[in-house]
Fold each of these.
Amino acid sequence: MITQKLISLGQELQEIMPFSNGIQTRDQYSEAIKMIDVLVGDAERNDLLINYLFPIIERYEATAPEFKKFNAKIDAMNMGQTVLRILMDHHILNTTHFAEEIGSEISVSLIANGKRQLTTKHINKLSKRFGISPAVFFD
């Protein structure tokens, strides 16, 4: 009985979300992004759908021609640089906001642009400030 209901729900999901087996177009990608934005508004209740939809979006972003240049740039970045840029974007910070953890604005800029590396001291201070594991800064 439960299996039949799940099969029915799965078929209904495929009708409502034709890209459930993979995003094929930019419009489908846009629709999936809009869906994920709504779902994360109540992530606890929508956990199952988020976990279902996220890999579909991720596969498209990894293979779509419009993301090729972006993905190549990300692949060329080291993990410390990537995490620093994500922290800056996520918390709406710029190079002047890291004096305590990294030092001068020039030092932050050099690290964010891949011309210098984060030190162990930088990583420990950033980890404490943002409540993240130092391991996220390493490949």
Amino acid sequence: MLEPSCYRLIATAWPLTIQLWMHQHRPMHEMSLCESALQIIEAQARIQTFHRVRRIVLEIGTLATIDTDALRWCFEIVAAHGVARGATLDIVVVPAHAWCQACALAVDIAQRGDACPRCGGHALMTDSGDALRIKELEVD
């Protein structure tokens, strides 16, 4: 369930449609990620004295378990007020990287539990691909 303050904001916007969508898809994780990203952006707006964000580029690792459609939907709601109002959200999905202990090489993986694409071994240590990062902001 979403935090009560988030739920009230959503419910006052479009009561029936949003509640039904939330019940079916439950974008809890994505809502909190959007809120956190926008808190960072608002803080940077105060520090760097910009007043409007035109474009936000988010980089999401393939292992991050983030539904990009839900993230876009949550972003529209969370960014409805403040410096990111009307901003374009671009999402770049980046591959996950792991170190294969058997063949001592860095490899790309699509999901946890994948075998090494070179030797077929499963002794992989994931070192990236599970993060969400604000890569770029286009501001006024």
